[in-house]
Automatic annotation (TrEMBL):
Keyword check for Oxidoreductase: yes
Protein family per UniProt: Belongs to the short-chain dehydrogenases/reductases (SDR) family.
Classification via PROSITE patterns: ADH_SHORT
InterPro entries: NAD(P)-bd_dom_sf, Sc_DH/Rdtase_CS, SDR_fam
Organism for this UniProt entry: Trinickia symbiotica
Pfam families on file: adh_short_C2
Protein name, UniProt field: Oxidoreductase
Protein keywords: Oxidoreductase
Keyword Disulfide bond: no
CDD domains tied to this protein: SDR_c (cd05233)
Length: 272
C-alpha cells in the first residue's frame, strides 16, 4: 500500500518510542514506516537504532513533514542503554505513552546441528530480550501517565513453523511475552498487543529473496500479493491508538491470510 496521505491526529499529544526505526537503504522497513506514521498522526517519537545513519533518513522524513522526533542510538540488548533511551525520551517530551518493540534480525538458519550457541543467543537477545529490557524500563513511565500501549512486532513464524528454530522461537516468545504484559499491567491501563507480519516486502527481505521466492509467497496466501511496511504500520497505529482501548493480549496477523491455510488448500492456491 502507498504511504497514507490522510491523517486524523489519532496520536495527538502522545509520546512514543520505536525500536529499529532505521532502515536498510532508502526503502521502508517496518520500524521506519511505524515511526513516520505515528509522527504524522501527532506523536512525538524517539527513533531508536544501533546505527545513527540508519535512523537519520527517518528523522528527516518526519521533521520535513512538520513532525517531532529525535534519534537515540544504542544496543537494546543492553539494559543500561534501554534505561537511558527511556530517560532521554521522558526528559525531552515529558512522559511516555507508547512503546513499539520492533527491532529484530533473522539469523541462525538451518538445522539445529548447524546453529552455534552464539548465533542462537544473538537472535533470542535481539528479538526477545530487547523487548523485555525496553518494556521493563518503559512500563513505569507509561503507568505514570495513566496508561498507554505496548505494541510488539512478532511474526507469523511465531505462530506457525517457519523452518528457523531460533527465529521462530524468539517470535513465539514475543507473543507469550505480550500476553504476560497484558495480564500484569492491565489494571494500570497498559495495553499490550502483538503483530505477526507475514510475507511483508521490506528492504531486508529484498536482500534475502529473489523474484522466484517472492512469486511463491504471492501464490500461497488467499490474498495473492505481498504486504509492505505500511500494512504493518497501519496495524500498529490502530493498536497504539485509543481506537483499540478494549483490546489487549492479542496477536494480530498481518499476512494476507497465510496463517489460515491448511496444506491441501495451499497446494490448490499455488496451482491456480
Amino acid at each position: 500500500m502507498p504511504s497514507p496521505k490522510v491523517f486524523h491526529e489519532r496520536l495527538s499529544g502522545k509520546v512514543a518510542i520505536v525500536t529499529g526505526a532505521g532502515s536498510l537503504g532508502h526503502g521502508f522497513g517496518t520500524g521506519k514506516a511505524i515511526a513516520c506514521l505515528f509522527a504524522a498522526e501527532g506523536a512525538s517519537v524517539c527513533l531508536v537504532d544501533q546505527q545513527h545513519e540508519r535512523a537519520a533518513e527517518t528523522l528527516t522524513l518526519i521533521t520535513d513533514a512538520g513532525g517531532q522526533a529525535f534519534i537515540s542510538t544504542g544496543d537494546v540488548t543492553d539494559s543500561a542503554v534501554c534505561a537511558r533511551i527511556v530517560d532521554e525520551t521522558v526528559e525531552r517530551y515529558g512522559g511516555l505513552d507508547i512503546l513499539v518493540n520492533n527491532v529484530g534480525i533473522s539469523g541462525a538458519p538451518g538445522r539445529l546441528e548447524d546453529i552455534d550457541e552464539a548465533s542462537w543467543d544473538r537472535v533470542i537477545d535481539v528479538n526477545l530480550k530487547s523487548a523485555f529490557l525496553m518494556s521493563r524500563s518503559a512500563v513505569p513511565k507509561i503507568v505514570a501517565r495513566g496508561g498507554g500501549a505496548i505494541v510488539n512486532i512478532s511474526s507469523v513464524a511465531g505462530i506457525r513453523s517457519h523452518g528457523s528454530a531460533a527465529y521462530g522461537s524468539s517470535k513465539a516468545g514475543m507473543v507469550a511475552f505480550t500476553r504476560e504484559l497484558a495480564v500484569m499491567y492491565g489494571r494500570d491501563f497498559v495495553r499490550a498487543n502483538a503483530i505477526a507480519p507475514g510475507h511483508i516486502f521490506t528492504p531486508m527481505v529484498e536482500s534475502m529473496l529473489n523474484e522466484k521466492a517472492r512469486e511463491r509467497r504471492r501464490k500461497i496466501a488467499p490474498l495473492p500479493l505481498e504486504g509492505d511496511a505500511w500494512d504493518v504500520a497501519a496495524a500498529a497505529l490502530f493498536l497504539a491508538s485509543d481506537e483499540s482501548r478494549f483490546i489487549t493480549g492479542t496477536c494480530l496477523p498481518v499476512d494476507g491470510g497465510v496463517t489460515e491455510i491448511a496444506a491441501l488448500a495451499a497446494y490448490d492456491l499455488v496451482q491456480q
